[in-house]
Amino acid sequence: MRSVEKKVKFPDGREVDVFTIFKFVYGLSDSELEILKLLISTKGKLSAEDIASSLNISRNTVTKPINLLLSKGLVLRDKEKGKANGRPRLIYFATPDIYSKMLTDLQSIVNDSLKEISKIRKNT
After folding, report:
1. What is the pTM of this model?
2. CB of 48 closer than 8 Å to CB of 66
3. CATH architecture of 2-97
4. Domain residue limits, the chain
5. What residue stretches are annotated with the HTH arsR-type domain (predicted)?
């Protein structure tokens, strides 16, 4: 999991890993962040059962965080192919361009922040 070790240095000297930035930008809970880290590091598709097993949590504990990650566009869902009988198993994976998504979203935040700071500065 090399990407977890990447650090970003802030002007005051604090260093945080990239996933701390994901957590802040997207308002992720600890469980959402752990699932996202797993899906990024796996570079494959995992079922809810696979996720639960890998993180040593119950299958039911995966449902809400995975749905929130889906709604935030950080995770995608697919149906597992090859099962003829019964409901197809759902599998999850990190959005393929997840780092590009974060860069775009961070740029938008910076642009919006600069506009607001500029307005405040003009009024002082």
Report:
1. 0.82
2. yes
3. Orthogonal Bundle (1.10)
4. 2-97
5. 23-104
